[in-house]
Amino acid sequence: HDLSGVPVPLRGLVEECLAPEPLDRPSLIEIRAWTRRQREEQHIATTRGVGRRAPVPEQWTMPVAPHAAPHPPPPVTADVPGDPQPHTPRDQPAMLAAEPFQQPPPIPDRADDAPLPSAAADPPTTRVLPAEPQRPVPWAAPVAPVPPPRKAQRILQLLGLGALTASAVAYAPYLGTALVGLVLLVMRTASVTRQRHGRRRMIRGRPRWYDVPTTAMSTPGYVVLALFGALTDLALAAIVALAAFSFGYLAGQPVEVRLLLAGIAFAPALWWGPGSGRLREMTRGLVLRAARTEYWGWFVAVMAGLGAAVLLGLLLSEGPNWAPALGAPWT
Q1: Are 25 and 115 in contact (CB under 8 A)?
Q2: Whole-number Å distance between alpha carbons of 71 and 99
Q3: How many angstroms separate the CA atoms of 325 and 321, rounded?
Q4: Of 104, 238, 79, whose CA–CA distance to 173 is shortest?
Q5: Cβ-contact 226, 185 below 8 angstroms
Q6: Is 0.70 topped by the overall pTM?
Q7: pLDDT for 70-113, tens place per residue?
Q8: In this structure, are residues 91 and 68 in contact, taking their beta carbons and an 8 Å threshold?
Q9: Concatenated DSSP letters for 218-270?
Q10: Per residue in 13-62, pLDDT tens?
Q11: CA-closest candidate to residue 267, choices 157, 166, 159
C-alpha cells in the first residue's frame, strides 16, 4: 500500500489497520483511544504556546463622565412661629447636590519641530511582556515514520532460509529433519499462543493483569495442540523428499545428488504443506521485522546463504552424515 500521502502521525495507525493478519489489526477501542490521545496532545500543545497569536494592542478610550445629577428643588418651608430652622417635608428626602462635570483642558497643538517625548521619561501605563519562547512539547512531536520493508531483503531472506533448510536435510537427513521439526513445533506453538492470547483480549475488550499468567499456564496445552499440525506437515514433506530421492535413484545419480534433490523437494513441501499457515505467518513476521531495518535483513540473508554453502560443501566433499545412525539405511 502506498501511504506516502497520509500524514505522518496517522501513517502508523493506517499501517496497523492494513496488517494481513486480522489479530495484528487494532480494535475499535484501541483506535478510539488513539484518536482521543491525539486530541488531548494537540490541545496541550496549543495551550502551551504552540500556534500562539500575536498580542493585540490595548485600545485606549477617552473618559466618559456620567450625567450630572439635577439640582434638588429648594425645600418647602413653612412659617411656624418659634421654629428657627426651615422645615423639610417627610415625604421628600433630601438630595445631595452633584458636583458639576469639569471638562478636561484642551491639548495644545504641537509644533512640527517639537521633539517627541522620550519612552524612558514617560513610561507607558501598561508594561508589555516579551513573548515566551516556544518550548518543544515531547508528546506533541511528530512520530518518526516507520520505514517500509525492503522487498529485496525479504526475498533474499526467504530464499536463504529455504536453502539452509534444504542443505541441512540433505547433509544430515536424520539430525537435519529433527532440527527442522523442532523449529516448526516452536513456531507453531508461538503462533497458537499468540492467537489465543489476542483472542482473549479481543473478546474482553482490554488486557488484564492475569493474561500473561494464564497464557504461561496454558502453554503445555498449546504445545500438544501444535504438535499434531507439525507432525502432519513434517510427514508430508518427508514423503515428498523420499519421492525426489527415489527419482534420483531411478535416474542413476550418486547418493549426494539424490540427497540434494530430496532436500530441494523437502523445503517447498514444508512451506506449502497442510498446516503450514502458521509457519508462513511467523516466518513472514520475522522476515518483515528484519527487512524494516537497514542491516539486519542483509545479515540474515548472508548468514543463511553461508550456512547453506558450508553444508553443501561438506555434503559434496565428505558425503552425508547419517548420525545418530552408523550408516545409510540401505547398507
Answers
A1: no
A2: 10
A3: 9
A4: 238
A5: yes
A6: no
A7: 555 555 554 445 544 554 444 444 444 445 556 666 655 554 44
A8: no
A9: THHHHHHHHHHHHHHHHHHHHHHHHHHHHHHHHTT--HHHHHHHHHHHHHHHH
A10: 888 888 877 777 888 888 888 888 888 888 787 776 544 555 545 555 55
A11: 166
